[in-house]
Specification:
The chain has about 550 residues and is of the alpha+beta class. It has four domains: about 110 residues, CBS-domain (Roll), CATH 3.10.580; about 120 residues, CBS-domain (Roll); about 120 residues, PAS domain (Beta-Lactamase, 2-Layer Sandwich); about 160 residues, 2-Layer Sandwich (Alpha-Beta Plaits), CATH 3.30.70.270. Helix content is about 35%, strand content about 25%. The strands form seven sheets. A five-stranded antiparallel beta sheet has the order 13-12-16-15-14, with helices on both faces. The chain has a five-stranded mixed beta sheet with strand order 18-19-17-22-23, with helices on both faces. The protein has a three-stranded mixed beta sheet with strand order 1-2-3. Strand 12 and strand 13 form a beta hairpin. Helix 1 crosses helix 7, helix 2 crosses helix 7 and helix 16 packs across helix 17. The longest helix is centred in the last third of the chain and has 18 residues. The protein starts with 15 loop residues before the first strand and ends with a strand.
Length: about 550
């Protein structure tokens, strides 16, 4: 049953409302569907979700129930496709600590909702080989929060809100006499019953209980038979020890993926969230490689809707195919670089085989944004132009290219006239402003495929591919003329005027190596200075 498709078990009736619906109508719908959830739709697309936990918080904060529900739909949308298996949905629920999944089709249109309760109904058979007892998981349960029959509903509501729990047993003396759940609170809100009333008049009773020696398989059967989400665990003296929920049961289901999760030291994720890198986990289902978990830094960068998406929506397909082959062959990859949008990333990771019904294995990837590191390796930090090392590499490649193609290209050296006087008169901060302004002026007045760099100090260089000397001269003259007329703002709100001198050299016409071209362009730049500055010299 674990491989059953979600579209075969999904529920839709009374589980959705329109985007414009009020909180009050959503609460009434929640009472009607009994699932503790309503999905908000814009057309056929899910745009929000309201859960029992959300309503508890809203009631606690006394939010107006006539407000639009979408304004308060704070829970993140995590959806999955209808052609995914029950096992995969359970994976996502456990990994992301959620109680229900939105199910969509291939066009992301709403198909319905699958809850942990739905999943549990189809997984009962998977418990038959399990020998886990309730007492084996007791230490994993959170401390139990209780209330007294004389407490008001609002006091119980506060306990739920503060402790982020879904149910509070009502204890008289040492015995449990009732229980208040999120579902009970929602029903009270739907009937507009004052929260100041005593909880004893609204608690559910009798309470369904089990003892620590009960097998989890029996807990599953009881939950399915009684259509409940939790049972209270009592000792032989009928004293409450804790609450076991559907979530607790599913976390301890002995199948291939839970076996894997137990071996993984799940508590390391809290530590990983503190690390500077981005961490994602990918489930290899055989046919698909789907992202099932990510740390906060991934969500901040790419959004939460990355969950249940193919990893190729994050890593380019060509790069991922090579990564995946390496992972299968050696179980690890190291320092693989790839580009997404305008950013560069470096990924390392490993593969853990599970060979089970739901997945063949799990891939964990650590990603680091190396955009700035790469940028700093070939750009000047002040002006943002390419640095001298990168310019020399481009120049060498352009020479090799144009030797093969028999083409010309030109280089231009530019030096700001009397720049030392700016630093001496106005200070180095003003000098920096001048350098940045000249850099921007140059990039704004060349072609997109021209390469502009800072060659050192106040000297700049332009590499112009497939450009004869006459064109390079015209471009240099245009830049010279614009700079001559420009008023440059510096620190202290002052403005100054500057000029620059230019030297040009052209490949094949003036030389066949980078050394020859740079030397000749520099000599012509010196000639421009000697002849009075503020001019372009090309011979």
């Amino acid at each position: 049953m674990i491989s059953l498709f979600l579209k075969e078990i999904v529920e839709k009736k009374d589980l959705y409302a329109r985007k414009a619906s009020s909180l009050r109508s959503v609460i009434n719908l929640m009472n009607k569907n009994g699932q503790g959830v309503v999905v908000l739709l814009d057309g056929k697309k899910p745009v929000g979700i309201v859960t029992e936990r959300d309503v508890i918080g809203l009631l606690f904060n006394r939010v107006d129930l006539d407000d639009k529900a979408v304004v308060h739909a704070q829970t993140s949308l995590i959806s999955t496709r209808g052609d995914r298996s029950i096992g995969h949905a359970l994976n996502l629920m456990i990994e992301n600590n959620i109680r229900r999944m939105i199910v969509v089709d291939e066009d992301d249109d709403f198909l319905g909702v699958v809850t942990q309760k739905n999943v549990l109904k189809y997984l009962e058979d998977d418990f038959y080989l399990s020998q886990i007892k309730v007492k084996h998981i007791m230490e994993k349960l959170r401390p139990m929060t209780v209330a007294a029959p004389g407490n008001s509903v609002h006091e119980v509501l506060q306990k739920m809100h503060d402790s982020k729990i879904s149910a509070v047993p009502i204890v008289s003396g040492e015995n449990v006499v009732g229980i208040i759940t999120e579902k009970d609170i929602i029903e009270l809100a739907g009937k507009s019953i004052p929260l100041s009333t005593k909880v004893s008049g609204h608690m559910s009773k009798p309470v369904i209980t089990m003892n620590p020696d009960s097998f989890l398989v029996d807990v599953v059967k009881l939950m399915n038979d009684q259509s409940i989400r939790r049972v209270v665990i009592e000792d032989r003296a009928k004293r409450p020890l804790g609450i076991v929920t559907i979530r607790d049961v599913l976390k301890n289901l002995e199948c291939d993926y839970c076996d894997f999760l137990e071996r993984k030291l799940r508590n390391t994720r809290d530590f990983l969230n503190l690390m500077p890198g981005m961490l994602i986990e990918v489930s290899d289902t055989g046919n698909n490689r789907l992202i099932v978990w990510a740390n906060d830094k991934v969500f901040t960068r790419f959004g939460r809707d990355i969950i249940d998406k193919p990893v190729t929506e994050l890593v380019p397909p060509a790069i991922w195919n090579k990564m995946y082959k390496t992972l299968l062959a050696s179980n690890r990859i190291e320092n693989v670089r790839f580009k997404k949008n305008e950013d560069m990333y470096q990924a390392s990771g490993f593969y853990i085989k599970t060979d089970g019904k739901v997945e063949n294995g799990r891939i964990q990837l650590m990603m680091v944004d190396i955009t700035e590191d790469i940028k700093l390796s070939f750009t000047d930090p002040l002006t943002g132009l390419y640095n001298r090392r990168f310019i020399n590499e481009v120049l060498m490649k352009e020479i090799e290219r144009d030797k093969r193609l028999g083409k010309e290209f030109s280089i231009v050296l530019l030096d700001i006239d009397n720049f030392k006087r700016v630093n001496d008169t106005y200070g180095h901060l003003s000098g920096d402003e001048v350098l940045k302004t000249v850099a921007m002026l140059m990039t704004d007045n060349v072609r997109k495929f021209d390469v502009v760099g800072r060659y050192g100090g106040e000297e700049f260089v332009i590499i112009m591919p497939e450009t004869p000397k006459i064109t390079a001269f015209d471009v240099s003259e245009r830049i010279r003329s614009i700079l001559e007329k420009k008023s440059i703002g510096i620190t202290g709100r002052k403005r100054i005027k500057l000029t620059a001198s230019f030297g040009i050299a052209t490949f094949q016409v003036d030389g066949m190596s980078s050394a020859e071209l740079l030397l000749l362009a520099d000599e012509r730049l010196y000639k421009a200075k000697k002849e009075g500055k503020n001019r372009v010299v090309d011979r």
